[in-house]
């Protein structure tokens, strides 16, 4: 039998990483020409380098960070911690006065009870309220944390949470209490829409549709904090613009710089909460406070009456 002509080229054996012999090596180091796996690939001005050639080289990032590992990958521990905190505090609400002490109310914030601006984002008014917020937070938070990394994700979350409290202080009567993680969740949705990749409609990702549905519910049903939702959404959009300005890459310096800017914005909003609350209290007379019968979330009538009585005293 005659052999085919020309003969087929020999098949090159698969290269193995010189540092991890059991892993395939898709490329070779541009300096030493040794085969390296994706865990050892470090970006260079031209091609990729191995860790052994990094001495004296400028700061670079590994391939696993570019692909979503490192800062921007792994288990979404931050989201799990936020979920666990909300659930644990809801249990605490049932056995203590956490609700009365933690919800955001302009009259109390105006007197220096600034912790309410943050604690209100971890409290909920009913099991259904908690369930819906935790479901969206789980679905959206795990994806956003994996995309942005924990530092930037938490920056977006807390900026949106505080923004939601500021929105509630601005748009609700001073004696009206507001609580829930909805502001932070709206902020995550706003940030995702802003960060949607070019050429891909946000509607296709489903987030824009989710946002529209939740906005529709916000304005359609009574007893929902419109200010809290809109404030959180605005803060989330701002956070998305900040991240877009610095880039979504895994470069550590940019990640840290972005996180610092988000922290500064969050602290600035937090510091503005007391002046905003005092201004809102000054615009509403005590007689109007006593007529307020539409709290952002239903509370025990005695707790609500205590809010109104104290509001009248503070605003006189």
CATH H-level homologous superfamily name: Rhomboid-like
Could you name the ranges where pLDDT drops below 50 across 5 or more consecutive residues? 58-73, 285-301
CATH topology descriptor: Rhomboid-like fold
Major sheet size, sense and barrel closure: 2 strands, antiparallel
Number of separate strands: 4
Strand content: under 5%
Domains counted in the coordinates: how many? 1
Give the second-level CATH assignment, the architecture. Up-down Bundle
Which value, in Å, is the CA radius of gyration? 26 Å
Description:
The protein is mainly α and 316 residues long. The protein has a two-stranded antiparallel sheet. Strands 3-4 form a two-stranded antiparallel sheet. The protein has 14 helices and four strands. The protein has one domain (75-315): Up-down Bundle (Rhomboid-like fold). A hairpin with a 4-residue loop joins strand 3 (42-43) and strand 4 (48-49).
Write the SSE topology.
Layout: E1 27-28, E2 35-36, E3 42-43, E4 48-49, H1 63-66, H2 77-95, H3 98-102, H4 106-109, H5 116-119, H6 127-148, H7 150-171, H8 182-194, H9 202-205, H10 207-220, H11 226-246, H12 252-282, H13 286-291, H14 301-315
Antiparallel strand pairs: 1-2, 3-4
